[in-house]
Design brief:
single chain, alpha/beta, Rossmann fold, 2 domains, 14% strand, disordered N terminus
C-alpha cells in the first residue's frame, strides 16, 4: 500500500496540490496533514500553508535510537513537527515543555522512566497529553498510567495506524 500512495503523490500534477490547498485544512486533521506534507515536499509551500496558525509538535522520548528515528520519519511524513530525546532527563533539560503538544514516551528507560517523567510533569503542572509505548505491557503499570491521565498505552510492536490514531486522540484530549 505504501508504494501505491507514494506513486500517487509522485504522479500528482501541480493542479492537484492547488486544489488541495483550496479545499482542505492541513492544520486540523491527520489526512490533511499527511497529504499536505507529501505534496508540499514535491511542489514546495504554495499558499503559505506551512505557516498555518498551528503546527503540532510531537515529542518522542525513547532510549532506542532506531525507534526514535523510525517514529520521527513516520510523524514527519504525517505532517507533525517532531522533537526526539534519548532520555526523560534530556527532555526536561531541553526547555521545550511548553512547546510540546503530545508526548510519546517509552515506559522503561535507563534513569528516569516514562512513568516517573509523567509524575514529574504532573508536579510541574505541565498538562501535555501522553501516549505510552512499551515492550513490557505489565497490567499494573498500564493501569497506574491510565489512572494518572495517560491517553493511550501502546504495546510494541504497534501499527502506524494505531500510533497515529492514539496521537489524534491525545490531541483531542489536550486541555485548551
Amino acid at each position: 500500500m505504501a508504494g501505491g500512495v507514494r506513486n500517487l503523490f509522485d504522479a500528482a500534477p501541480p493542479a492537484v496540490y492547488d486544489s488541495f490547498l483550496t479545499y482542505a485544512d492541513p492544520t486540523y486533521d491527520f489526512v490533511g496533514r499527511y497529504v499536505y506534507g507529501r505534496l508540499a515536499h514535491k511542489f514546495g509551500d504554495r499558499g503559505g500553508a506551512l505557516n498555518a496558525p498551528r503546527v503540532v509538535r510531537v515529542v518522542v522520548v525513547d532510549n532506542n535510537a532506531s525507534v526514535r528515528g523510525a517514529l520521527e520519519e513516520l510523524l514527519t511524513a504525517a505532517g507533525y513537527e517532531v522533537d526526539t530525546h534519548a532520555s526523560a532527563e534530556s527532555f526536561l533539560e531541553s526547555g521545550r515543555l511548553s512547546s510540546a503538544d503530545c508526548l510519546l514516551l517509552d515506559v522503561e528507560m535507563p534513569g528516569m522512566s516514562g512513568v516517573e517523567l509523567q509524575e514529574q510533569l504532573d508536579r510541574l503542572d505541565a498538562r501535555i497529553p501522553i501516549v505510552f509505548m512499551t515492550g513490557h505491557g505489565k497490567a499494573s503499570i498500564r493501569n497506574r498510567a491510565l489512572a494518572a491521565g495517560v491517553v493511550e498505552f501502546l504495546e510494541k510492536p504497534f501499527s502506524d495506524r494505531a500510533l497515529l490514531g492514539a496521537i489524534e486522540r491525545a490531541l483531542r484530549a489536550a486541555p485548551p
